[in-house]
Each structure stands twice: as C-alpha cells, then as structure tokens.
C-alpha cells in the first residue's frame, strides 16, 4: 500500500502522519 492509497482511504490523515507511523514502527522493530 502506498502513502497515496493510505491518504485516499483515510482523508483525516496527512502525509506526515503516515511517515511518523512508519518511523515509529521502524524504531520499535529495531529496538528488539
């Protein structure tokens, strides 16, 4: 799923919200 698809499905979100969620996920997985 692309950022554009996520934003189309969830119009209340902004691109920065998606990037922040991806960064959080990457940091969480990397912390293991």
Break the fold down into its secondary structure elements and pairings.
Layout: H1 3-9, H2 15-30
In short:
This protein has 32 residues and is mainly alpha-helical. It is 72% helix and 0% strand.
Tell me what you see in this structure.
With 32 residues, the chain is mainly alpha-helical. It has one domain. The protein is built from two helices and no strands. It has helices at 3-9, 15-30. The longest helix has 16 residues, at 15-30. The termini are far apart.
Query: Shape from CA axes?
Result: elongated
Task: Briefly note the structural class of the backbone.
Answer: mainly alpha
* Helix and strand pattern: HH
Number of domains: 1
- Mean of pLDDT: 94
Number of helices: 2
The low-confidence runs, each spanning 5 or more residues with pLDDT under 50, are none
Could you estimate the helical fraction of the residues in percent? over 70%
What share of the residues does DSSP label as strand, in percent? under 5%
Taking the alpha carbons of the first and last residues, their distance comes to 25 Å
Radius of gyration of CA atoms, rounded to a whole number:
11 Å
Largest sheet: none
DSSP strand tally: 0
Keywords for this entry:
mainly alpha; 2 helices; elongated
């Amino acid at each position: 799923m692309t950022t554009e698809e996520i934003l189309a499905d969830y119009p209340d979100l902004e691109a920065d919200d998606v990037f922040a969620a991806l960064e959080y996920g990457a940091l969480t997985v990397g912390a293991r």
